[in-house]
Write a structure and sequence with these properties.
about 1000 residues; alpha/beta; six-stranded antiparallel β-sheet; 29 strands; globular
């Protein structure tokens, strides 16, 4: 069939049934990928809202011979969330908790609900006493339906087991479009009055009983042999001694037998006194040998990571991100709680004593600090992403999967499991197997349950490399079976491992799997290619057959190097956009800053992952480079990217979508008329000096009826509050005494926006530096080029930055302190990537944001002359967060004496030019509701609101002016709060910061 016309016809048919269906090329691209090595393009993507919608889709597809793939968060690594027919995305609308029964300890929820959302709602409804136990590392975006489909487990599975162990019933839609309910002891029609469904339930029940009777011996000897035996179908649940448990037999079927629309799950007691114990070992084998000892202490978690992941985390996010880890090259995380022992701390001490006696433990320590505990668990949870692009201490040959100082690893054999007591011997053999095939494995996983996640340096771009993968996976399957294990321990078989199931199971069992599939799905339309009649494991690979063309970029994204047979290595732009492996952290609704646009729209299009996949498709399918740079799907996907840069830090792989957007727009608009805002806002630094002269007239115009016309003329949304330009007198006052001084020990870089709108911040910054004994040289005539960068005008940005680098490269190592965080980030990161000179690199290395510099002042013994209020609210600045570290400002505030720091961890919504541009206002306001607006409402006018970024200050100003639920607060820069000039006069409110001092810390 020709996908385009058929997709259009199918979409029209489904829309006629009242369904939301999409066949745009951009949408199909977004759903051609999951977190696996595979790519399959669907015909149509459907977003069902009700069980009836799902039944209507299934019935339509059954009549028309179309395949159906159910999808949740799209975070599966087995390739079982993609298909070439109709894809059903449950995460968009079918994401509700339907019932919570605290007394009965159960909950009912739809398949599309994210696991952390389910846990949060259960805890909220039960006073924090109950929760849903399965907690895979992807729990912040993985859905309940996905956990059921793969039989997910999680970090605490050593106590709580698999999803299977928590299912009470499943509401299903069959391949024919009938609605059934699978119970612990049978199968019934969801609606007892539905005669067709009741008849089908009886038919399926009889067939399953015949299947069970015919295979009793094999089911008893081959199934459920180890805790993590997830591969294949769980047919052992149908045995008489297991009560003919149809509900749990369907867990782990990967959407190949029925479509799960909701589930009734069991709840467990939520621990209240968990203590993290970190253990360091020489290697993962030594760590695995201590697992039996660890299990004696009944921990709720025994998780492990190896040194490569820690090295990468440290390089990406700094030493603080792994603070608390003991000495070693491999680490185990042990959670002890009230179910482990009456006194977890005493149990931890006894456990350490016993482990030291075993002779393998290098170092061990408890982690009582809550922040360190969260940070360390994040290292484990981000294992899949961190291990995909590893930082190496040495340059890695491109032929070995390297790209500069990094190298890649991939799934494929990332989920094998053995009995915990066999794990060490299995890992010894596995390490030897890797060496035999010339591969490197990055190991992490659920040591306590015997399940290892290993990402391997497969070369999936070449035919030879793919052949190595096939040989290795075949040998690895034989090895894990030799040790009594399973090909999959929680990720499912999918396209990655289903072909290898005959190595693990007897012909009789393989035949039984096929019969079970045929009972439920005679036409084979449900998620074909997985478990039964599998696709070859080396077909439909994401990295196969991507043209290695040279996409010339302005940003330095690396060098191609030399590939196989002397050919050019992988193009840096291709390598960059292929960094996204689909783990989907950008779809999380809490934690970190990424991705504000997705959190506002909940549309895959607006996630970092969705954008990356569209760019991947661009480099794969473009006729040539010129037409690729003009790709409309990519332009549309990037439109709502706020260029906040949070993904460069929050994404475990380090995808930097702001840079890719800038690069794409630079090429897309080359030789074309740009949006008006690219001229009015993008070129703003060029005309700000003139604006200062005309400030009274401009401010009067912007506060009159003419403001709407002015806004429209500049491509700006007229609803957005415009900033007031500083008058020349204010600029002179703010810049008084600030001049270039070659003998000074510190350079103060005053950016265009600070000078034009907040010159008093420059004065306050200089005063703070002076109070610490610093002498200050001021540079106020150069620009960081950020507005040109964010609008993709990179040719001019490079010229501006080259001039700036030349002016600042003075032969010294004096720190360059920049009060505007976005400007500091541009000079720190974008400058050396756009201006490829030693001068640019030297200047970038000297740049510090003001908060970073305050940390250095405190290190040198400085005591601030003005006490900081004990309680402050801080709007996290996205660029500072990304370029200088997520904890930069809150850590400094605590060191300054703030005992309560309320963090608005999320983008403010303005994000430079984004919030002002026509077409972006509504999204920008939705983004502000993620953290900033709620923080302003909650903490009111009695708490200083720190907004070091000008955009953040504008967001606060707009919210207070337009939202009557938000008190009339004024935001301040940290330098204003610390300005010793406040001590000079306590009676004159020269700045908002002075008011804070006068009123005892309130604004």
């Amino acid at each position: 069939m020709d996908p385009a016309p058929n997709g259009t016809r199918i979409s029209a048919d489904l829309q006629a049934l009242g369904l939301s269906a999409d066949t745009s090329t951009r949408r199909l691209t977004e759903y051609s990928y999951d977190a696996s090595n595979y790519r399959l393009s669907p015909l149509v993507v459907v977003f069902p809202r009700t069980d009836e919608d799902v039944a209507a889709v299934a019935a339509y597809c059954h009549r028309n011979g179309l395949t159906v793939t159910a999808r949740g968060g799209g975070t599966g690594m087995g390739g079982n969330a993609i298909g070439n027919g109709v894809v059903l995305d449950f995460s968009r609308h079918m994401d509700k908790v339907l019932e919570i029964d605290a007394e009965g300890r159960t909950a009912v929820a739809q398949s599309g609900i994210v696991l952390t959302t389910l846990q949060r709602e259960v805890r909220g409804a039960t006073g924090g006493t109950l929760t849903f136990a399965p907690d895979p590392s992807s729990q912040s975006r993985a859905t309940l339906g996905g956990a059921i489909g793969n039989d997910a487990c999680g970090n605490h599975s050593v106590r709580y087991g698999r999803t299977t162990d928590h299912i009470e019933s499943l509401d299903l839609v069959t391949a024919e479009g009938l609605r059934l309910t699978a119970l612990r002891d049978g199968l019934v029609a969801t609606d007892p009055a539905d005669g067709a469904a009741a008849a089908r339930a009886e038919e399926l029940t009889a067939a399953m009983r015949r299947l069970t009777s015919a295979n009793m011996g094999a089911l008893r000897t081959e199934m459920e042999q180890i805790p993590r035996q997830v591969s294949g179908y769980h047919l052992g649940k149908l045995l008489p001694e297991n009560g003919f448990d149809v509900a749990r037999a369907l867990v782990g079927t990967e959407g190949t037998c029925a479509i799960v629309v909701s589930a009734k799950v069991r709840l467990v007691t939520a621990p209240t006194r968990a203590l993290l114990l970190c253990l360091g070992y020489r290697n993962v084998v030594d760590a695995a040998r201590d697992v039996p000892t660890l299990l004696e202490f009944a921990p709720s978690a025994i998780e492990g990571i190896d040194e490569r992941i820690v090295q990468t985390m440290r390089a990406r996010r700094g030493d603080d991100s792994v603070a608390g880890l003991p000495e070693g090259n491999a680490w185990l995380y042990i959670d002890l709680d009230e179910e482990s022992a009456e006194d977890p701390a005493l149990a931890a001490a006894q456990l350490l004593e016993k482990l030291y006696a075993n002779g393998r433990l290098v170092d061990g320590r408890t982690v009582p600090d809550p922040a360190q505990r969260i940070s360390l668990w994040r290292v484990r949870e981000d294992g899949a992403g961190l291990s995909s692009r590893l930082v190496s201490s040495e340059e890695v040959n491109p032929e070995d999967g390297g790209h500069g100082g990094t190298y890649e690893s991939w799934p494929g054999w990332e989920d094998s499991a053995v009995a915990p007591e066999n794990l060490a011997d299995y890992l010894e053999g596995f390490t030897e197997l890797l060496d035999h095939h010339g591969l490197t494995g990055v190991m992490y996983g659920h040591f306590g349950a015997g399940c290892m996640h290993v990402r391997i340096t497969f070369d999936l771009r070449s035919a030879e490399g793919r052949a190595v993968m096939r040989r290795f996976c075949t040998d690895a399957a034989a090895l894990v079976v030799k040790h009594g294990g399973s090909l999959s321990g929680e990720h499912g078989d999918g396209r990655a491992r289903s072909e290898l199931l005959p190595i693990m199971y007897s012909p009789q069992m393989i035949s039984a799997f096929g019969d079970f599939k045929k009972i439920w799905d005679p036409a084979g339309i449900l998620n074909p290619g997985s478990i039964v009649d599998p696709d070859p494991l080396d077909e439909n690979l994401v990295l196969a057959d991507v043209p290695n063309r040279q996409w010339q970029t302005s940003f330095d994204l690396g060098t191609p190097g030399i590939g196989v047979n002397g050919q050019p290595g992988l193009d840096p732009f291709i390598h960059a956009v292929q960094g996204c492996i689909g783990v989907g952290r950008c779809r999380s609704d809490a934690g970190g800053v990424m991705c504000p646009s997705y959190r506002a729209t909940r549309d895959e299009k607006d996630s970092t992952r969705g954008r990356a996949r569209v760019l991947q498709e661009m480099v794969r399918t473009a006729r040539d480079i010129k037409s690729g740079w003009r790709d409309e799907d990519s332009r549309e996907a990037l439109d709502l990217c706020l260029s906040c840069k949070a993904c460069s830090t929050d994404c475990p792989v380090g995808v930097d979508m702001a840079t890719y957007k800038s690069e794409f727009f630079s090429n897309y608009y080359r030789g074309r008329v740009r949006p008006l805002s690219h001229y009015s806002l993008g070129w703003m630094p060029a005309w700000l000096s003139v604006a200062g002269t005309l400030a009274p007239l401009i401010n009067k115009t912007l506060s009159s009826r003419l403001s709407t016309l002015a806004a429209k003329a500049g491509g700006i949304d007229p609803r957005r509050t415009m900033p007031a330009f500083a008058r020349r007198k204010q600029v002179r006052a703010g810049m008084a005494g600030l001049r270039a001084d070659p003998s000074a020990d510190t350079v103060l870089f005053v950016d265009s926006f600070t000078k034009a709108f907040r010159p008093h911040v420059a004065a306050a910054t200089a005063n703070v530096l002076g109070s610490a004994g610093r002498t200050v040289s001021c540079e106020a005539d150069q620009c960081c080029g950020l507005t040109w960068i964010s609008t993709g005008q990179l040719g001019h940005a490079r010229k501006v930055l080259a001039r700036t680098a030349a002016a600042l490269d003075d032969g010294t190592d004096r720190p360059i302190v920049v009060p505007e965080p976005s400007c500091a980030a541009a000079l720190r990161k974008d400058l050396p990537e756009l201006v490829h000179t030693d001068a640019a690199r030297r200047v970038a290395a000297r740049v510090r944001s003001f908060a970073v510099e305050v940390g250095h002042l405190l290190d040198d013994g400085w005591e601030p002359p003005v006490p900081l209020p004990a309680e402050v609210t801080v709007q996290t600045h996205c660029h500072e967060y990304a370029s200088f570290g997520p904890t930069t400002q809150p850590a400094v505030l605590k060191r300054l004496g703030a005992t309560t720091v309320h963090q608005a961890d999320g983008c403010c919504g303005v994000a430079g030019n984004f919030g002002f541009e026509k077409g972006h206002y509504d999204v920008s306001m939705d983004v502000s509701e993620q953290a900033l607006a709620p923080a302003l409402r909650k903490h009111g006018s009695d708490t200083p609101v720190l907004t070091d970024g000008f955009s953040c200050a504008m967001a606060v100003q707009h919210l207070t002016a337009t939202d009557n639920t938000i008190p009339d607060v004024q935001s301040v820069h940290l330098a204003e709060l610390l300005d010793p000039a406040l001590l000079i006069s306590q009676t004159t409110a020269q700045t908002p910061a002075a008011q804070v001092a006068e009123q005892g810390g309130s604004i």
